[in-house]
Amino acid sequence: MIDLVAFNGWAKNLRLRNGTAELLVTLEVGPRILSYTKSGGLNPLKIYEDQAGTTGDTVWRNRGGHRLWIAPESREITYFLDNAPVAWEQLGPHRVRVTPPAETAIGFQKQLDITLDASGTGVTVVHRVTRLGATPADLALWALTVMTPGGVALMPQPALGEHPRDLLPNRKMVVWPYTDLSDPRWTFGRRFFRLRQDATRGATKIGLADPLGWCAYVVGDVCFLKRYAWDPAATYLDGGCNFETFSNTKMLEVESLGPLLRLAPGASAEHTERWILLDAPRDLAAQTDDQLAGFFQPHAPR
Questions:
Q1: Hey, which of 63, 195, 199, 263 has its CA 20 to 30 A from 50?
Q2: Threshold 0.70, pTM exceeds
Q3: Could you report the per-residue pLDDT of 214-261, keeping only the tens digit for each?
Q4: Rounded to the nearest 5°, which phi and psi values hold at 138?
Q5: Which domains does the chain have, with CATH numbers?
Q6: d(CA 285, CA 302)
């Protein structure tokens, strides 16, 4: 079912629901997915309350929720304002397409196709960018989900190898200049990396070349899991990352990136994420790596 509802000061928001899960997508800015819940439970997506309900701002606003960006990160292109109302069309019983105004000044058109499964909590988000400019553009599609504070991001790692049998590297981690790897928010385990959101600590960020193609965020009794692609033959930006995570005093982001591509005039590119919500024991983020692996085994690709 799809209807229009008010939410957090915005009067017009699409609500997609199937009896188990519910998504809210604002039509007044963005496009932004603002809420993703199961049976009226906790929304794991962060909403900046001091930015809620506004539209037409003359500066870029984080606002929270889930958004589409264009990489590499730049003030001109990545932070192009998304403060205007968006158009929408219904593509199916639980599927919508939201289209913001064209970014004609920089030559791009963004879109999100959002599908809630007919049952359960599964969601498919197709991110699309079309080149409007007269020249090709080198870019990657970048999907960012802003998570509510107080949780832990979980990043699975490939199985350990053996020496001297395995002589070549099989993992890559990229570290941003402001990231202190002795920061106690970080735990680098055998099977999982973890980043804990902490309201007393500032910016930190790493990126990964993630062949497993999934991550999770656990807050309270909710586990948000997203899946995304990895192409070993492709080139990825930011030193080879298809996954990045950032946190500060207010929130934590889990971000996936598509491969670097050259987008010709009139051409479009897509990047797809698959989401699910899981019921989590309240001590899930504190469990051992082996316990975590057992919890996620039925839900996440190996």
A1: 195
A2: yes
A3: 999 999 999 999 999 999 999 999 999 999 999 999 999 999 999 999
A4: -95, 125
A5: 2-296 (2.70.98.10)
A6: 19
